[in-house]
Structure formats: structure tokens, C-alpha cells
# Entry
Amino acid sequence: MNTMTRLLVTAALALASVSTAHATARIDTAAFSIVNQWGDSPDVLLSNGNGVTRIGLTSAADSLDAFTSRYQEGNFYAGLFEVTVHAGYRVTGFSFSGTFAGVLDVAPNPNGTPGNGFAFNSGNIEFSAGSRPHGVFYGEHTQRVDMLDGALPFTMSSGQLSLTTDFNLSLQGLILVSAYPTVTSQYPSGIDSFASLRVVNPVFTIYTMAVPEPETYGMLLAGIAVIGLVRRRRRPA
# Structure
């Protein structure tokens, strides 16, 4: 576990000790159920069809957002999602996506020349998954930005999987911003600069497919056998 992960876990545990009463956010589909054990607000089922389920992470969007016009601000997020795979289905992959959106605005001097202020932002997100109760099969993939003035989309994807047992998704993030004023003889208290950073539209996408029942396999094999028999009979002597 690296330093960033330890920091985020410690902060999440500290927050939990202050407020132990919150409603877990649960989403049910035919293929799986997902519960955010650390969610402060319900996540949203955006779409579900053709084996693709998209879940908007409301709590992550609320938390991964910070701005300041003077000095420092920051925020963190920690989510633990328990995924229960339903009988007759398998999870074939998953991803976490979103967009970092940042603003850096150093206040200019009154005459329009560059000021001596400063604006800074930094964001880090870690995404991992593991079987319950222990085990890691998608470990601590990281997306980081520094000094972002604009938008940067990102996606962290597991690739092809075949999971019929329950597993956890872990998502942790930290946002830091700071802004220092431009100080002049005319404005000794300074002219405010501005810095912000947030994660826009954080989304889990989970891919699933139905697992054929044993009798379905039997019918398929029988059909293949019949086709093979017909082809042999049609083969010229």
C-alpha cells in the first residue's frame, strides 16, 4: 500500500469515526447487485442494457471537488463497492471513467502585466478490485494530474474478465488546490488568484453476460452432433 493509499484510508476511517450513521447506496440489476459501503449519498443507475451497466458516482463527484481564491483547500473520497454476481451471469469487465476539470488563474498586476501570485492544483485517483474477502486481481491503477488548466478525460479499464464470484471495487481520490495573491505596493493585501479542480461525471461501467444453463449446453452439443451427421450423409461416396 503506497503513501497516497494510506493517507486516503486513514482519512476515510477518521470520517467514519465522526459520523457512523449513513445509508448505504445499493443498486440492483438482473446480473449483479452493488453496494457502496462508504457512500454518503446514493449513486445513480444511468443505463442498463445489452450487458452494459453505467453507474454515476454521485458521492465521488460531490467529494472530488475543491477550489480556493486564497491559500489552500482540499478534499478526498474513499468508496468501497461490494459487487454480488447473480446466478446465471458473469462479469466480463469493468471500468472507471471521468474527466478532470481544472482552472488556474494567477491575478495580473493592475497594469495587466503578469502578477507575482501563484495557482496550483493536483489530483490523484486510485482504482483497484479484489475477490472477497481478500485478494487483488486489478491493483491500484492510478490517474494523476498536476497544474491542469482545462479538461482531461480518463478511463481505467480491467480488460477482459470472467467473474462468477463476488468481488469488491475500491476507489480512492484526493484533490488539492492552492492560490496565492498578487501583491503590489498599490494592493499590499494582495489581489486574489484562483485555483480549482474537480472530477466531472465519474462513472463505473460494468460489463456482463448470461451464462447458459447446463441443459442449454446439452442442446447445443446435440445440435452440433446432428449437423455433423447430416453433413456426413450428404458427402458424396
About this structure: The chain has a mean pLDDT of 85.
